[in-house]
Amino acid sequence: VSAHIHRRLVDLLEENRVVVWYDGAGTMRALAMQFTAPHCQLVDTSESILKSRREADRIFRGLNNPDNATLKNQNLLIYCPRQRGRTDEQRCEDPFEVFAVFGAVFGDKESESLQSLARQAMPEHVAEIDRLFAEGHPTLSMLDNLQAGQSFPLLQDCLGSDAPLAVAAEVLCIPGTVAKIAATPGVMDELLR
Q1: Binning pLDDT at 50, 70 and 90, where does residue 182 land?
Q2: pTM metric for this prediction
Q3: Strand, helix or coil at 170?
Q4: Under a CB-based contact definition with an 8 Å cutoff, are residues 30 and 89 in contact?
């Protein structure tokens, strides 16, 4: 799934040079912080919107500027861990909307949600992906592990193993394990399976 998202973003950057990546659920933050692509400058707006806007402006002014050797051939990716505004008024209040209008947007359509992207990346695992989303909130790493053949990703994430013997031993012998499983959505269903 991570590789699929990376390819989509690289394609958008090559086509538009400026991409604003909205991640309302914040599920792809780890991928964003590790994102690398040729000639790409990443601006993370998680910490300070004002500093991020200034940094994005600085990079944007350098694009195609023959006097700026460092930035003239760069692309700009802006990561926003929030939803894009739905109405014109909400979009006018977004300090990064101008970059979205100039370039491209990723993550604001239903087809760019984590579940939809996972289904597109692994059509052979659609039933398992839908089950994971119905039972809980899978992480990007859980979805990436589906491709590797991991059969119980929620148990793996919760207990550190999905091997039946290790899970049974932990449930039977380590106090608090059952409470931990019960507190994590979807894990009990995988344990029963």
Answers
A1: confident
A2: 0.76
A3: helix
A4: no
17, 103 contact by CB (below 8 A): yes
For residues 151 and 145, the answer to whether their CB atoms sit within 8 Å is no
End-to-end CA distance of the chain: 25
Q: How confident is the model at residue 147 (pLDDT cuts 50, 70, 90)?
A: low
CA-based torsion, 37, 81, 106, 133: positive or negative:
positive
Please, which residues have CB within 8 angstroms of residue 111's CB and are 6 or more apart in sequence? 120
Q: What are the structure tokens assigned to 41, written together?
A: 């400058």
**Sign of the dihedral through C-alpha 65, 66, 69, 74:** positive
Query: How is residue 98 written in tokens?
Result: 């101008």
Query: Hey, is 44 helix, strand or coil?
Result: strand
